[in-house]
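User:
I study polymers; will you set down one protein's sequence and backbone structure tokens?

Assistant:
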Amino acid sequence: MLLQIKYLLFKLKLIQPSEKTISLWMYTQQVEKLEYALAFGNYKTRKLAAEALGVVGKSSSIPVLLKAINDNVHNVSVAALNTLEIVGKKDNLIQLIVKKRFDWMRKIRESNAKYETNKNKKYKIFRWDRASKKSFDRVKEQLKRPIR
């Protein structure tokens, strides 16, 4: 009864479900509530709901998880990808999507790591003297000398 009241208050956007509530939804396998939490919760709730859907493992939640991999919060999209990897083991299309997305994320992580390692590195860049500047300085010095 209390869980139904919490879910109703969550649907009215008055509260966010706690970690305990989401874990109870997970153990009772209430997939609809977890999918709603993944779609409309705050970022902590969405992350917990995505992880809970991975534990439940129902293939009916794949469309909601596919929407969640494009989430603005990085942790939520990673949790949704991990869940899709668990849930969509039998589906070749889902495996291909997960593989492509993980490759894309790996490339981003590698480029960020490369940027972080080279961020404080000082480079010695030599400026080569141009011939025109040397000739200009030589002419300038000759003009300073008295004419005979």
